[in-house]
Structures are given as C-alpha cells and as structure tokens.
Predict the 3D structure of the following.
Amino acid sequence: SDADPRYPRERGKNYKLFFYDYFAIKRKLFMSFYMRKRIGIELNDVAKIISNSIKNHLSCVPLGLHRFILRSLLRAYIGVRNSVVFLRNLKPDLLVVVNSYGHADIVHGAKILRIPIIELQHGFIYPYHLGYTYPDVEKNYIDIFPDYLFTFGELWNSATNFPIHEQNLIATGFPYFEEQREKYQNLDRKKRDILFISQNTIGRRLLRIAIQVALKAKNYNIIFKLHPKQYNDWKERFSDILCEMPLNIVIYGKDAPNIYRLFRTSRVQVGVFSTALYEGLGFGLKTIICMLPGWRFAKQLVSSKQASLAKNSKDILRLISIDDGKNNDVAKIFRPNAVNNMHFAIDEILEQRKKLRVRYDSCY
C-alpha cells in the first residue's frame, strides 16, 4: 500500500492488473473438446468407477452421478492446465487467495510451478469444515491446499486437522476487524442492550427464544440481528411469530446499523455458531451460546470458558444477570497489528523461498 514505505508504488506507474475471465471462459469452451480426447475417455472411466462405487454403497438411492463426476474431473483438469499457463506468463513471486477450496485449480497450478501460496482466513473454521479438515492425510500432501494459512489468531490454529505443518499456520490477525473496532471505539456501551445474532439455519427457533427473553426481561432491550440470507423473506417466514413480539424487541434487517456498531453498544450477545460471535468477543461482549442445532461448531468457546452455554431462555436470563467481570483473551482470537504481521510473515516466506530456490538451482 502507499502508506507502507516497504511497498511503495513506482512514481508514474500502476500495478499490473490481470483478469482470469478469459481462462474461465476457455475452460467452458474446451469441455466438449476434451470430452472426445484421450484424457476425456480416461476420465470417463474414472468417473464410472467412482459412480459405481457410490451406487454400491447406496444401493437404494439412484443418484445418477456419472456425468456430474465426469464434468467435475474435466473442469479440474482443464482448470489446472489453464492456471499453469496463466501463472507461467505472469511469473508471480507469491500467490495469495481467499477461500482456497473455491480456487482449487489455480492453487494446484501454483504448486506445480513451485509458487508459494498463502490463504487468508475469511471466516469460521471448525472441526467439520470440508474445506480445511483432513483427519488422516500426510502433511503437505494435498495439491489444492495452500502452503500457508494466515489465521485471525492463535485460537484458530488448532481449530481442526489442517493438512499442513503447524509452523505453516501463522496467526497474523484480521485487518478489517481492527479497522471496525477502532472506528466505533468511542461509542458508549448500553448496559441494557442484548444482541441476538441470527443465522439462516436456526433463525426461527432463535427468534422464539429471543421473544421469551424479552417477555420475561422487560427492562432489557432485545436486538435480533438477521443474517443477510434472511433479509428478503423474513417477514413472510416469521409472520406467525411476529404477532407475539413485545415492545422491547426489535428485528434488524437490511437497514440495520452496522453490526460492529451493535457490538460496541451492546453488553451481551447470544448466538449459536456464527463467525460474528467471535467478532463480538473481540469487542468485549459477554457471550452466550444457545444449544440449538450447530452449537457444537462453537464448542471451543465454551470449553475455553470464553462463552457460556444456555439450553433455553431461562438459562439465558440467568446468565445475563450475572456480571462476572471476565475479560476474554481477545488477542488469541484476533492478533493485533494484523497488516504489519502479514508484511513480516510474507517477507519471511519470500526470503525462505529465495534461499530454497538458490539451493535448488545450485544442484544443476
């Protein structure tokens, strides 16, 4: 960035900007072409084996997966070939991705070309997350997984069985979270505001609990913050519940205040397993995990005593009334000075790779 003297822009010049759209279109156009080639025939045989194996294990369920598997294999094959061409022309020193499992082809292409790959954590990582959990594989064996994962903080480095070595899990922090916390730091906390954080999967059941809390705790203001996936149809989906709402509860949707503002002004947050719960902890909120489906994804917060567990509205009311004065170890969730940490880690990785390249080249 311009603000960091170690990474200046050259006067009168801009960074080069490349778009991957051409290669994405090329992959679609080449699907039918490769289908008739030798590789297409070989992948078709592989797709049959996989499809028949699934069919044998699920004999009562006719899924018809053969064509889906074949197209997935072809997309992967063409995508990796395209990525290698793209990266070979671009010659980057480093590849940084967000959501590596959504960009598997370019990650695999970078591995082939020995380009170091960093993924920036973009959300909640838990033990059952299919993008990060590899329980029984050799470390650094997965071709579509990055070489390094920059996590929000140390807490996340033990979140699941990552397929890379522990030293390649680097707690750097979350720059956007830091910006938002600084932006709202001067706002006053409202001791009577209780923030419920909804999710699309459990929103209806959580709203019922929020209403029960509001009915019994009339001296509190209950804020029910909808998930963005609920914005468009929540009035229709919750129409039979809304008539039960007391005056001390408000539902915030698309036109709600920024959620980071709500974190700063609330005293307690209640949720199930949303990433937002961790950010609320970073704002110092007393946190209650409600035992609705999926709560075990956030079990780590309960076992580390950074959050309390509630079975029902009665438990929530009891926990709200307790002022334990506990300060959570926020630095373990979101390491401070994120941008500087990232710069330092990137410099270290590039220097290390430079030495390895010299050692590798000296063999020839």
User: Anything to note?
Assistant: The first strand starts at residue 95 and ends at 98. Residues 360-364 have pLDDT under 50 and may be disordered. Residues 158 and 180 are 26 Å apart (CA to CA).
